[in-house]
Amino acid sequence: MIFVGRGALLRRAVAHALATGHRVDLVVSEDPDDRPHDRAADGRAVPFTATTDVNAVADRLLGHATDGVVWSVNNRLIFREPLLGRGLRIHNIHNGLLPQHRGLPSAAVAYALLNGDREYGATLHEVDAGVDTGRVLAELPFPLAADARFHRVLLRGIQACQQLFERSLDAVAAGRPIGPPAAREPRPAGYHSLRALRELPSYAGHPAYRRATDVGVAAPFVPELVEVLRAAAGADPGYGGGLRTAGRTIDGSSHNGVTDG
Questions:
Q1: Separation CA 238–CA 249 (nearest Å)
Q2: What pTM value is reported for the model?
Q3: N or C end: fewer C-beta atoms under 10 angstroms in the chain?
Q4: 44 and 66 in contact (C-beta within 8 Å)?
Q5: Lowest mean pLDDT: which of 39-43, 86-90, 101-105?
Q6: Peptide bond just before 99 cis, omega within 30 deg
Q7: pLDDT in tens, 164-176
Q8: Rounded CA gap, 81 and 63, in Å?
Q9: Beta strands in the chain (DSSP E)
């Protein structure tokens, strides 16, 4: 199997796959620091490719795939032709419940709290040409308390992503049905882009706004939200956002192509 993504979620997923005896054919990331340190059971180093365009290295992926399974974990690299439609089984672990939490987890969490959503979680879905629109295979929801704050929800979502991956790994590898998600009322569709993130300050008067932007200890995982809140604070000294600390890296997960649209 092949892993595409970045950050701690990607590294933990690869380490877990190796520790449980699965063959990892290739790891692809934007960040060279994501090169796996764990070795395969036979002692071989896991092949690694650093790229900002996974489609530009399509031949490498297709050449390394031994079982056709591709995992997208904390991934912002967009799968397009020639990777789509070539028989690969591409599965994404998404931080959020689909379809209402499509897009950036940093925006999805904030709007889930603003919208009064009763639950959040992680979703395993097939990857198609859309943005988090592929068939849902499994999910791991958790309830949102009335006083839920952004940093707690985001971090619990990251934990749910890892748990869902570990629960689904064997079935996906074997090509077994995972089983449909638990029956529930249809969810409203939503898409949370960078544009939606930049519009967050317009909700400053919302009663849940402070909770929805309380990045707290999760700031290192949501630099794009930190930037928006800093800009709002700089433009208005009386601004009541929830920014408390700075951040640099993202460790949420989303596919396929979190865009500006």
A1: 28
A2: 0.88
A3: C
A4: no
A5: 39-43
A6: yes
A7: 999 999 999 999 9
A8: 16
A9: 2-5, 26-29, 48-50, 69-73, 89-95, 102-103, 119-126, 136-143, 191-192
